[in-house]
Specification:
alpha/beta; homodimer; globular; 7 strands; about 55% helix; seven-stranded parallel beta sheet
Chain lengths: ~325, ~325
């Protein structure tokens, strides 16, 4: 982490020129807990905000072992070869890596991280999901200002991190494996209803046949979900990231999706809704943090939760009591 | 609405004796917006709380036209005939009926509302979902204290009302029709993942065949959702509420569900989790109400939302600004 700080103007000029070192350092400011860094990053973002919004924001989720890193490595490389500039971000609220351990993500995406048209940023370390998600969202804006065309945001699927990613992207991809018979392979509640496209990875060799069968099963399952307002029906596609199979078709379908959304009001609507959701969520998290971290509240909370368990007080009465404690402790 | 109020002791004694007039009047207190009524109902609930928890709480949802009222009427009557005491509550945040228009719900459930073993309470009128849900949850506790064995909570599916009902019941039923080919018949996102049982209603005459086909489709679809921690796999059953077909099998399955949950820790765990969720949700709603209804906040909010749309400020920065406005207006 750089100890020296530049002026906001220096960062802004650097990002505008696509200088990765400046971009990285600006993202470090975004991720920093220091108020002075926060102020500086706020100024940078405020200035660059009108220059954001031009990328295709793509979220990627899937259980561990499904091959997310391999997919991003191969797919990102394909996009770079097609002349795109690709940035990779991640949300991992479970991450306990020491600061600056960039190696973790970079070695996972060996080819892509060496590509001059790509920028691979490791997950911000530690903090609550709300904090980690905010950092990733603001980093995304900086990558856009730096000229990246496609931003891939990976989530490891811990906690509510899929929702956080879903709420910042234009398209949300779910990677699965071919053994559809094994139920949902640990996919969490709600995920299937968020996805814009399902990819069955590792569809090669002996698994090609299985993947086709799984495709049919998932396609039928997706018919049981309500259609999106745009009328888009999430397609199910197969690929093999390891053997570079099917990736071009996927990009073609993603372009079709973007075209269809941009023809109608849906693209812009989704982004506007996301922006308001982000404002609202940020406020809610802050209010709750403020409330539950209040020493008087947390002291009383444990006691009340016990009383709820013993049917001595109803949850609603307990809530009202806690709110009273908070109000009078503040006043 | 009764203008006279009894003492808390009178209500409590009446409810303990299963006096419906007292129960109704106590629920009216729960639904009242008057602080004095709220205080009185709080006292009643606090006293009766240790006598609650003994009913089987069942939530019922489904799109309009699926036959929810007919189902509750027939199913509730069957339960009464089997010697059970049945209470029916509802959550309808869209309800704009004038106060006391009990007729609406009662005439919809003609047989059941005449049954001496049943108590049919109309939806509480008006208010936010949070408010309406709180009223229903507290009414549920009063019904339990009055000795009802089974409490059916109906939701019309407006807004997040299914989640509210799901969070207060032991079993959540989804009523569907046999035309499974018509996608999800307007079922909202997230519902399929909440259900403990799917019922395909109107499975009679020409539709019996169709219902069986739909049953197979839904059963397969439900396999694509993660299993509940208890290992319960939501079954799909067919019935005809109008012709009294299949209702006994449904009740048998519901008893099997209850037995299975109570053998493990799941029954009590679900209720404990629900109680904490209720406390937390109540606090969150109050905090947000407090925040967004603050005149300084709402004045600034509209302006900031416009600026977000014009990319003049990021949603997170807007949130921070609003929080500042609130803090300094309070201080």
């Amino acid at each position: 982490m750089p100890r020296t700080r530049h002026t906001a103007e220096t960062y802004i000029a650097g990002i505008r020129e696509g200088d990765r070192v400046m971009l990285s350092q600006a993202i470090t400011l975004v991720e920093s807990a220091r108020p002075a860094d926060r102020e500086l990053s706020n100024e940078i973002i405020r200035t660059l905000l009108p220059e954001t919004g031009n990328s295709y924001r793509v979220g990627i989720t899937g259980v561990p072992g499904v091959g997310k890193s391999t997919f991003i490595d191969a797919f990102g490389t394909l996009l770079c070869d097609a002349g795109k500039q690709v940035a990779v971000l991640a949300i991992d609220p479970s991450s306990n890596r020491t600061k600056g351990s960039i190696l973790g993500d970079k070695t996972r995406m060996e080819r892509l991280s060496m590509n001059p048209a790509a920028y691979v940023r490791p997950s911000p370390t530690g903090g609550s999901l709300g904090g980690v998600a905010r950092k990733t969202r603001e980093s995304l804006l900086l990558c856009e200002a730096a000229g990246y065309d496609i931003i891939l945001v990976e989530t490891v699927g811990v906690g509510q991190s899929e929702t956080a990613v879903h709420d910042m992207v234009d398209m949300f991809l779910l990677l699965m494996l071919a053994n559809a018979g094994d139920e949902l392979q640990g996919i969490k509640k709600g995920i299937m209803e968020m996805v814009d496209m399902v990819l069955i990875n590792k569809a090669d060799g002996n698994f090609a046949q299985k993947a086709r069968a799984a495709k049919a099963v998932y396609a039928q399952a997706l018919r049981l979900f309500p259609l999106q307002p745009s009328g888009w029906r999430p397609p199910v596609m197969t690929c093999s990231a390891l053997h570079n199979l099917g990736l071009e078709d996927i990009w073609e379908k993603m372009e079709a999706y973007r075209d269809q959304m941009q023809e109608g009001p849906y693209w812009q609507q989704r982004r506007s809704n996301q922006a308001l959701t982000w404002m609202h969520d940020t406020i809610r998290h802050q209010l709750e943090d403020m409330f539950f971290s209040h020493p008087e509240v947390s002291k009383t909370q444990a006691q009340l939760e016990t009383e709820i368990g013993e049917l001595k007080i109803s949850p609603i009465q307990a809530a009202e009591k806690l709110l009273e404690v908070w109000q009078s402790a503040k006043g």
